[in-house]
Amino acid sequence: MPRSRRTTGLSLAASAAILLVTSACGQQAQPGAGGGTGQGTETEETEAEGTITIAGEEANDHGTEDVAGMASVELEMDDSYFEPTVLSGEAGQTLGVELTNEGSNQHTFTIDSLGVDVSLSGGETGEAEVTFPDAGALLFYCQFHDDLGMRGGLSVGGDLEAAEEDDGGSSGGGGGGDGGAGGPGYGR
Ligand SMILES: [Cu+2]
Predict the structure, then answer these.
(1) How far is the CA of 184 from the centre of ligand 1 (A)?
(2) Mean pLDDT by 10 residues, the chain (188 residues)
(3) DSSP letters of the chain?
(4) Ligand 1 centroid to residue 144 C-alpha, Å
(5) pLDDT of 163
(6) Is the overall model pTM greater than 0.70, yes or no?
(7) From the CA of 150, how far away is ligand 1's center (Å)?
């Protein structure tokens, strides 16, 4: 009887499927091709505690005091912040501000549009008189440390972020789409 022999030596050649995923991310960010000022800075909402935005820039936040109806308030200047940082008052209110520089650096209490500019060395005290705006908010700042966040605001329930600054506002954000409202006769 014939024996049938089977060779079981089957070599399975695993076929390797090679997928070449070429992700060609050839995106070249070309800002503002064709002119036009970019839409510039996107406001990054860093949630850094202890800062608020006043007139578009960061301020070291040391609290808000309601001064409505008060004739004067004590305001501490320190290295490098104002405390309280925001005075919340009434429209048109006149307020005496008793300043104390409790820091070691020299600081100023400056409000351009009111002509207020009190400069104090460490440990000194001084006074200023301020008038609240009719609406919105008004920026005060230290000339030396503004860029360190030493600024504050007189607020009449207003938007501190848009507080009036000396130097006219940047023209705001522009261009919303007015796309919609389609063409004529969207017949039904
Ligand atoms: Cu200062």
Answers:
(1) 60
(2) 48 38 41 44 50 92 96 97 97 97 98 97 98 94 96 89 59 41 46
(3) -PPPP--------PPP--------------TTTTS-------------TTEEEETTEEEE---EEE-TT-SEEEEEEETTEEESSEEE--TT-EEEEEEEE-SSS-EEEEEGGGTEEEEE-TT-EEEEEEE--SSEEEEEE-TTTGGGT-EEEEEEB--GGG-B-SS-PPP---------S--S----
(4) 5
(5) 80
(6) no
(7) 6
